[in-house]
TrEMBL record:
PROSITE patterns: S_R_A_B_BARREL
Gene Ontology terms describing biological process: pollen tube adhesion
Record protein name field: Stress-response A/B barrel domain-containing protein
Annotated source species: Ambrosia artemisiifolia
Subunit text: Homodimer.
Residue ranges of every copy of the Stress-response A/B barrel domain listed in the record: 31-125
Length: 132
């Protein structure tokens, strides 16, 4: 049986900070930057690993970039259209993505990264929660 937390727990500073930071994130308009990629044939796994590490390292150099995640396609639907890798970056605002795109560290990395891709698709979106 699940018991609801007491009002005292819900008023605790830790819970209030969590709720407040979550609210601020949504008010600022969190934006996801999704890049789908297919690496060129002949690119070694070591080269791919190095490029992924370079991509992940952008979060340490470009302030508006808040997080980075990646993964390989594991779908059984076979609708990937040849894309093999997915990269997700999180930004607080659309303006943050504009800053990221024009940042010299990103420009240098993107030039090298894109040179190793056979296909690429980029989508930026603001996540929207749906109440069940």
């Amino acid at each position: 049986m699940w018991l609801a937390p007491s009002p005292a727990v819900l008023r605790s500073p830790l819970i209030q900070e969590y709720v407040s930071s979550d609210r601020r994130r949504w008010e600022m308009g969190e934006v996801k930057h999704i890049l789908l990629a297919k690496f060129k044939d002949g690119i070694s796994q070591q080269q791919i690993d190095d490029l992924i590490k370079g991509y992940a390292n952008l979060v340490n150099h470009i302030e508006p970039m808040k997080s980075f995640k990646w993964g390989k396609d594991v779908s059984i639907e076979n609708l990937h259209q040849g894309f093999t890798h997915v990269f997700e970056s999180t930004f607080e605002t659309v303006e943050g993505i504009a800053t990221y795109i024009s940042h010299p560290v990103h420009v240098e990395f993107a030039t090298r990264f894109l040179d190793h891709l056979d296909k690429v698709l980029v989508v930026d979106f603001k996540p929207t929660a749906v109440d069940p």
